[in-house]
Specification:
single chain; 1076 residues; alpha+beta; 5-stranded mixed sheet; 4-stranded antiparallel sheet; 22% helix; elongated
Amino acid sequence: MIRLHEVPKVGVQEDIATYLAEQLPDADPNDRTQLTLRADGLFIYAATAVRFISPPKYPLSQYEQREKLQELLKLGSPSGLDELYQQILSVAFSEADTKFLRRRLDILHAVVCAQELISVPVIAQLLSLDEGTTMTCIESLHSVLHVSPLDRLISCYHASFPDFILDAQRSRFTAPLPFTKSKSRELEVFCDKPTFDARLAHGCFRIMRSELRFNICGLPSSSMLDREVVNLHFLVRTHISPALQYAARHWSEHLLAAGQTDRSSLYDELEVFMTNVCLFWLEAMNLIGSKSRCFPLFRFARRWLQLEAESDLSALIDDAASFATSFTGSPASQSTPHLYISCLSTWSSSAPISRIWKPCFKHLPLYSPSPVGTASLITIPTPAESVAFSPDDTKILSGWVSGTSSKIWDSTTGELLQDLVTPELPFSSRRAPVSFSDDGAYIISAKSVFIHIWDVLNGNQLSVLSADIGGIEAVAFSHDVRYIVSGSNSGTVCIWAREPAVGDQPQRLYGHYRPVESVAFSPDDTQVVSSTCLGDKTVRIWDVKTGQLVKKLTGHVYGIRSVMFSPCGLRIIAAEVDEAVCIWDASTGELVKYFSSNGSQGIRPIAISHDGQKIIAQGSKNSSLQVWDITDVERDSDLPEFAKFLTFVSNTGMEVSFFTREQLLFEVTGLTIDLVLSATFSHDGTRIACADGQSIHVWNLTEGKRSTKLEGHTDKVVCVAFSLDGKQVISSSLDNTIQTWDVTTGQQLKEFGSDAASLRRDRRHFDLQHLALSKDGTLACAAYGRSLPVDILILDTASGKVMTEHHVSEKVTCLSFSPDSARLIAGLDTGSLIIWDVRTEEQVGHFQCHEEPITFVTFFPDGFRLVAGSMDSSIRIWDMRNAEVKVLTGDRGEVVSVAVSVSGEEIVSGSRDGWIVVWDAQTGVRSKEIRLSADGCPNSLSFSPRVEHPQIVAGLTDNSVRVWDTTTGTVRVLRGHTSRVNSVAFSPDGTRIVSGSHDRSVRVWKNIEDPPSWHVDSEGWIWSHDDSLRLMWLSPELHPSLLTPHAAMIIWEMGYCAVSFEDCHVGTDWHRCYSP
């Protein structure tokens, strides 16, 4: 690569002389020589002079060219480009009167201050001028301004010209008046940028206020994606003028650049914009393909507002930024009408955007949210193990242990910006850490023993650092971006030069003996801190220059997940793997503060905010993601023993505090995420991102706490039943509770299990294995214990008291009550059955039924016969009156579920391979069979009580509930559960079905034949029953809690949400949803 400034000046002067000879062949050679000397090696000077002397658009005669060259040379001693620019501007402006001069200067300043190349019509509209005047001014400056012949966009020929205009001293000069020999005038072409940016901001607001409107392009239907709209590009060009496009893309940049200038007036403009046209602006931005700019523009406006005290306007902008991200980062943005139909309709009614805008949209779908839980702003479906925000928070970097690339994503739209591909390795990696440099110019992505350094601007790989000290577990840049620190799974910490010389080796720091999972530089880059999660469980501080160990911080009970210096450099903050955060004095190594959940909150810290004041944690007792404040908590006076010990060993009066709900800043509950692998805060502290191995989720922290908890099970639901009158649902769970619910309202009527729990705590068996309910819901039984003996408790569901207690020396595999609740039967893994009389508490039977473990057992309606299924693939019917046994063979596999019809004439069995078989109970002949799902086996089966309408309901391991009409053969699929369905039952009248699942929810379904009025696809789009209308989009994260048309009730600790399409305008009628 050849750089002009490295070429000798003599050679450049010769090239300039050749250039001038070609461009000005009729000029006097001596004049050309003088002009060459004046250029002083600057090609831009020569090119600008040529355009001044010989305008390309307005050819001059030889005499006129010579005359202009003479005028240029008579300016006196040469002073470079400034003198040339002064001469050009003197010719263009010196004869204009004050009014016209001000107008032409405004046009020039608009070109200089514009955020992108703009055209004459755009300048004219921004300044409220006519296009003729604007074009005349631009043409008079042809020497320094270029008008593209293709798109008519205006640009400066060289960056030195805007620099000249923006310099107050250089752009003030005396200009000779034309046609005079002695007269001159003081000419000031200086542009005060903040003042002019304020004027351009006013122009942008005026244009948007005038031109933005609802459905600006007349989109014909909300059922169409934008790409399906015929001639959409033509509609956009027709209805969204270039001036409006410029104003929409850059209003906030001009506002921020204006600073304090004209602040009061601009504040009013911003307030009008936010309350009157904000959503129409989002609509236009989506249509012109600039949706990714929406969030940054709101951020610029918020930064401008930060000079003011907190206000309703600042809250509105914060909410609008979140709303914009929710729209632009979702599939809803593929169809612009769904800005209103999907996003506005589902936005929180208490949010500022909703309070201002929803009254104007009275005919949107009616969305009823769950009181708890929230969908993420965006979800990026990509495998990711590590995530990091860029310093300006506009990008997210992700790394994954498998594959060959790290990826950069737009943090507001979820769009892939760059794919950073590395060679495929012949061996796998345990971690794939990633990091941005503080200036945002570089990226580290590590995999195995290699550290890759990338240029963010162009995605080029700059270098690869190879370690011989084990796989890389953690990486970080120094704040001055000169060094990189890494931690390896061998326990070695390395400090690397970002641009190492040939042969340079990293500085290796030895001390840890287990994987180093977190590293960071001090604010002044003189020290490095490192920590381990396993093994030595220490935090170590190292001197960067010498490599010596400065401090070793010990006393951690658990390993450390994340460690950092506080922004002031005086503290070390460490988040432990399990429920604690430690804050150390960086100079003395003393532990000064210790935060713990003490087991009450059950949190697992994951990451620390950049300001050291908050942590991200995952709830260990439920599927939640939380943000906690670790700055301002009261010392707990009633310390547990372990806390007193910590206080003693610190010898510093260390504060020990417990996390309380007051320190909970944010909580997302009801996640389907099993384990958060990595999490991070945005640098402005308004968002968090987490990776779970399958997706990247981004949440907005300004929405506040999500701490409301509804009634519901906190562990897997294993058994469900209706009460005899059908008004209640009874459910039992591995959370050791049995709960009763109102089937209409979902309200909890009773909860018990404490007695059973207290009995368990006094025993040596702690594992609940099986639960069963009597048919009338009055009794429950529970089997505890993985080891022998197994304890079986019979409980009264009305009082919650334990009625009977039995001990079994064999492993219990299933339980069941007789229809009259008088007997209890237990199936054992030895293939035998035990029967107890519930009233007398006596064992009335113990006999061998199968050769292999019994998987399911139930009574016939007559109460005298029972049927059991086994892993030996057989089904056996026992008549307890005469000990007669009937063996049903020929099932397709291991029997996992069995049910008996209301009449007792049929048996249905489900096998491990998914087949369901109906048997004649008298003859033992198979009458019907069906495979409901290729991916799931029936965990639970039940016959409908309606004999005239024979149906069988099955709860499957593929998360579905399926209703089989055994007469017609039709099968209805009821979806909503997110994990295997463990239990199903019909209501006494057969009109409803209840199901319980591993996902902790109980669901009540309408047993109706009518097809659902709408259904949801995997991307989140809700369609009409015949797929003719795309009704709305709803985040897939909300689908588990969504009441579908056939769902009557969801009983879940996360609550449920619902949507109604009555009195809403969608499809071709969508434009009527707006009524100002």
